[in-house]
Amino acid sequence: MRGRKLMVWFLLIVTLMSSMINVFAEEANQSYLYGPNSFVKAPVAAEPGRDIDHSTIGTTSLKKPSDLYATENYLYIVDTGNNRILKVNQVYQLIKEYTEYEVDGVKIPFASPEGVYVDAQDQLLIADTNNGRIVKLNEEGEVVALFEKPQSKMLPTDFNYLPSKVVCDEAGRIFVAVKGFNMGLIELDKTGEFVQLLGASKVTYSVTDAIWRLFSTKEQQKRMAAFVPAEYNNISVDADGFVYATTGTMSQNNKEGMKFVRKLNARGDDVLRRTDYDGVSGDLEWANTGSIKGPSQIVDCLTLSDGVYAILDQKRARVFVYDTGGVMLFIFGELGQTEGTMTSPSSLEMFNDHFLVLDSVKNKIVSFDLTEYGRTILDACHYREKNDLVNEEAAWQRVYAMNNNHPAIMREMGKIAYRERDMQSAMDYFQQGEDKEGYSKAFQFYRREMINKYFTPVALGILSLLAIYTMYKIYKKYWCKKKKIVKKQGPFGYAFYVIFRPLDGFWDLKHEKRGSVKVALGLMAAVGGVLIMQSLLTSFIFSTVSVEEYNFIFDLLKAYIPLILWTGSTWCVSTLMDGEGSYKDIITATGYSLTPILVILPCVALCSNFLIQDEGVLCTFFISVAYLWMVVLLVASVMQTHNYSLKKTLLVIIISLLVIVMILFILLLCIALMQEILAFVIDLQTEIVNRL
């Protein structure tokens, strides 16, 4: 009977969890955008149009197609599985089929070609992958040039040359991405001679990885991911000659691998502009459970006009469109089996004013039509590049009417208000768009206006208050002297004596009982309130939290967990090392040591609202002073409370810190084990739901 009840409860939990997963998936399929702190819903920018398959083109079935390239009048499709390149017109009717090329009277069929590019002379550059060469053909399919495996001392002599993608710039330079080759792109001149390796990734080792490998066995090291540079899987070139290269997925051991897309100049330097909150990497949030887990897998980058470009995520079948500053403009696309969805997209192109996505599993092309929202955004970017301020403002106003919570839109509206000298509105827009630099510039002008407007009355008010305070001090001094009233310093006021005379103060705190445990506990409790105040009152320019998503629990944890660990570890260590102070003495001394941050941090938070971004060094300086002052007081408190020498004090503090590290390590290990157990339970639940 008991087992039956447990089974009923288990099935109920599974049903509830699966319903939650379905709701989440439903929300995930809606159009959305990422802001600096979270994702927000957005109007649909591109809707699925028609599906284009072999019957539309008028040919046999496609098989594992891998690449698209569009000119003004024609679209080229690389049908890898059928060893051919298809040329279709604007209505997607087949014009020509390239299946082979003739060399010295011998016809050579293509062998799994994976890339095509058409230059300004309408000549085709085809990556004939399994034949190990680049083939250059004219429109009729006649060979113009063959570029075999390049020879250079910079290249390994035994590497397998499998060119997968090829592009060419206006100067005739040819760039080749090679499968299984992680030394960068191969650059050739117009005659096919090797020039250089472009944009080779740099491998970086983290301290954590180095320590982990140091203490790992040989068998564990074999199971670890190798430290290898990222491999380019696709390339494109823009009108200015910059090469955009994609690296697929993030490498766990290679920080350079986190750059999914790179914009390479002639020297191979990555000059792609990225925002602080978005590394041009597709989805910024993802699950690590279920059938689709982990970061995006970028397989193509499409360069458009006006500095706009789009990247294709194969893992979740989404297209992410960015502007020249790396700001995400809109997202479209969906994973699925129905019409208008994709299973395994492999290439992205713009043709006939439509986005085309090639699906290598469904063996067809999915067309996406821009909505008014998406088209207006691109129009606004166009006017911005042309410096047409009037039309740009009108375009962004239309976009704002359709979506008033897009961070990029709010920033553009802020720029418009800034140009119109409406600084207060500009500040509001920049704050909503999380643009701290723009907010700082607008605030600088707004502050100047306020100073010019209110300087005289504010200055007179301050002088009047100073005069009243001076008269009060004179009167108080005379009255106190006349009445012979002696002012006594209480336990709270004693905190200010301690911070300026720490050695004497902490000695008297213990031996003469000048302080109070209640006051010390109150000071420790106030730290949480001060950190909350700092988060809420700090100017937007210098704040690291979003007020809308702020959770005070995190600040309380930041305040009290270090205090608990410090007092606990110090008591344990000092007890073992002949310390004279009790736990009560440690609590009292620690509480009084916190006085500098209780005084300075609120003042800095308030004053930050009158500073611009360039003046932020003042905030950093005074915050550093507060914490450094607190550290000095903690050292003095340990020395005087336990009657240690300075040398022994430092030794006790170092051991205490090591104890804290050990405690944190054990806690993190427990948390990691719990996460693994939870992930196993979720995967088990998903498997059960799928089988049911």
Notable traits:
692 residues, alpha+beta, Lipocalin, Neuraminidase, four-stranded antiparallel sheet, disordered N terminus
How would you describe what is shown here?
With 692 residues, the protein is of the alpha+beta class. It folds into four domains: 17-52 and 199-206 and 229-370, Lipocalin (Beta Barrel); 59-197, 6 Propeller (Neuraminidase); 404-478, no CATH class; 494-652, no CATH class. It is built from 17 helices and 27 strands. The strands form eight sheets. The chain has a four-stranded antiparallel β-sheet. β18 (234-237) and β19 (243-246) form a beta hairpin. α11 packs across α16 (616-642). The longest helix has 48 residues, at 436-483. Residues 1-29, 223-227 and 251-257 have low confidence and may be disordered.
Taken as a percent bin, the fraction of beta residues is 15-25%
What is the chains' assembly state?
Answer: single chain
CATH architecture of the largest domain: Beta Barrel
CATH class of the largest domain, named: Mainly Beta
Strand count: 27
User: Radius of gyration, Cα only, in angstroms?
Assistant: 33 Å
CATH topology name of the largest domain, in short, is: Lipocalin
Helical residues, percent: 40-55%
With strands numbered from the N-terminus, the spatial order across the biggest sheet is 3-27-26-25
- The count of helical stretches stands at 17
N-to-C CA distance: 23 Å
Overall body shape:
elongated
Q: Mean pLDDT across all residues, rounded?
A: 84
Largest beta-sheet details: 4 strands, antiparallel
Based on helices, strands and strand pairing, what is the structural class? Answer: alpha+beta
Number of separate structural domains: 4
Low-confidence stretches: 1-29, 223-227, 251-257
